[in-house]
Design a protein that fits this description.
By secondary structure, the protein is an alpha/beta fold. 37% of the residues lie in helices and 10% in strands. It is built from 16 helices and eight strands. Strands 2, 3, 4, 5, 6 and 7 form a six-stranded parallel beta sheet that branches. Helix 13 (237-247) runs parallel beside helix 14 (265-278). The radius of gyration is 37 Å and the shape is globular.
Length: 330
């Protein structure tokens, strides 16, 4: 009886005072509670920018296309590799380009009978100014100047070219021996950790056969269009400066020597560098010159027997003046 009475009293209490966590009509139909943007689809839960669509993760320049991968450093390319576009059938004297750049080249000749030397002061000038240059050593010069060859190969601003093994005139020897001249020197350059960017025939003696032999080694045949006249020391520094500055233009390839045969080169080189800069010209290696976006190689004049020095007077008045397109022995 008492239990029945207690149950009736509790039932009456529940009916008159609903619990506080019950959903009243007002709360159940209130719009803000029915579709609460914060609880149903909060931006941080539905599409968190940090994890789902963060711009730095989706297209991060650091992760997707790092600059160091897109543009190799100067000491890895292009100075250690040859140009990769189709090679012309002729020897290149210069390129036509609107880019204000020129290539300074330095032959390091040696023969079986003459070791020659190394122009330390010329090297020091180029190193101090950080002038990109292309050196064309013979294989014999590399063998007789191992320390200097390694020093040149260690410089990221120096490119290597192939200048035959013993400075033989490539058009006057059997093809088999001519091929050996190129291959033997290329093997020596490879031992320095380098690869030639071009072949320069000794004395500028070239024909189509020579060009084809170089092309089989993946090298263009490159000569020059501006003659410094430094070989043999027959042209004084002031005349050398005037000649080079007058003849050099965008796309030019200038020939010097760095094997002890140009005693006035070290005197003329600082003024030549300064003068070319004043003309608005910059310096690149031969391979970089050939890879300018608008570069059009220009053929050197045919020279099946090579060229004599400017001072010999055998080229006529233009050669005696050191004019463009006249070629000295190299």
């Amino acid at each position: 009886m008492n239990a029945l009475l207690l149950a009736v009293m509790l039932s009456a209490q529940d009916a008159s005072a609903p619990p506080t966590d019950a959903a009243s009509l007002t709360d159940a139909a209130r719009p803000i509670d029915a579709t609460p943007p914060i609880d149903v689809a909060p931006p941080t839960d539905a599409a968190p920018p940090t994890d789902a669509a963060r711009p730095t993760d989706a297209a991060s320049p650091t992760d997707a296309t790092p600059p160091t991968d897109a543009t190799p450093p100067i000491d890895s390319q292009p100075h250690t590799a040859p140009v990769d576009h189709p090679l012309p059938w002729f020897a290149i004297a210069r390129v036509r380009t609107q880019q204000p750049v020129v290539a300074l080249t330095f032959d390091a000749c040696a023969t079986l009978k003459q070791d020659n030397g190394f122009d330390r002061e010329v090297f020091d000038i180029l190193k101090r100014e950080q002038i990109p240059m292309t050196v064309f050593p013979t294989g014999r010069w590399i063998e007789t100047h191992p320390a200097e060859s390694k020093e040149l190969a260690a410089q990221p601003w120096v490119a290597f070219g192939n200048h035959s093994y013993s400075h033989a005139r490539m058009t006057r020897i059997p093809r088999r021996k001519a091929r050996e001249q190129i291959a033997r020197t290329e093997a020596l350059i490879a031992e320095l950790g380098r690869q030639s960017v071009a072949f320069r025939p000794p004395a500028g003696a070239w024909n189509r056969s020579v060009v084809r032999m170089a092309a089989r080694q993946h090298m263009p045949t490159v000569e020059w269009d501006v003659v410094s006249g430094d070989a043999g020391g027959h042209i004084a520094a002031p005349k050398m400066v005037a000649t080079v500055l007058a003849a050099t233009k965008p796309g030019s390839i200038v020939i010097f020597h760095i094997n002890g045969r140009g005693p006035h080169t070290k005197e003329a080189l600082p003024d030549i560098i300064r003068g070319l800069r004043e003309k608005g010209l910059g310096f690149v290696t031969v391979s970089d010159l050939l890879q300018q976006p608008d570069a059009q190689p220009v053929s050197a004049r045919p020279a099946p027997f090579g060229w004599r020095p400017l001072h010999s007077g055998r080229h006529g008045s233009k050669a005696r003046q050191g004019a463009v397109d006249d070629n000295p022995p190299s």
